[in-house]
Amino acid sequence: MLGPWRRLDPLVATFGPLAAALALLVSGCTPEIGDKCTLSTDCSIRGDRFCDTSQPDGYCTIPGCRGSGCPDKAGCILFRGSVPGCQYSDRSQARTGRSFCMAACESDDDCRDGYVCRDPRQPPWRAIIQDDVQEQKVCLARPISEIPASFAPLPVCEAGNANGAPIPAPAGTIDYPVDAGAGDAGAGDAGGADAGSQDAGVSDAAADADAG
Predict the structure, then answer these.
(1) Tens-place pLDDT, residues 99-133
(2) What is the Cα–Cα distance from 138 to 106, expressed in whole angstroms?
(3) Which of 29, 39, 44, 78 could form a disulfide linkage to 99, CB 3.0–4.6 angstroms apart?
(4) Cβ 117 vs Cβ 108: under 8 Å
């Protein structure tokens, strides 16, 4: 009688190559550092990678990396590693420092749309490469200074016209209604009439006294 493993041999022979091909296909589609993402599970289902949604269309990375601790084709970059005016010390990093694995590259063509291949040590990033290789470039979000003016967002507090300049408002004028002036004149006339009537009453009283 054939053992259980003997019975499985035909199945292994039949589906073994298919399973190997499927495993190879799945491994080829594994997200890499620098890929776009929405959730961290888009970067890894094992929870060992993080989706930085502050980057355009998300950025698969590993936060808190240390020197030479990133996967292949990625570099460990420390951002804000030193306080302005103070020298960097690898023994006591600034509390503002944050390190991330960034996708390594040689040219802009190696990066996604919206990203450029740059030396992170240069402005505006002024980051610190924590790997032994200090001349590497990584894919970084395109800085605003390199975005064409037609695509650059308008400042939040500026008017929404083409050049972003404030829209001048015309000087205002106050138009007083004609009726109000007429009412004032009528009131004056009425006051004069009343005064005249009072004078007439005094004259009649004087005439009556003379007659008596």
Answers:
(1) 999 999 999 999 999 999 999 999 999 999 999 98
(2) 8
(3) 78
(4) yes
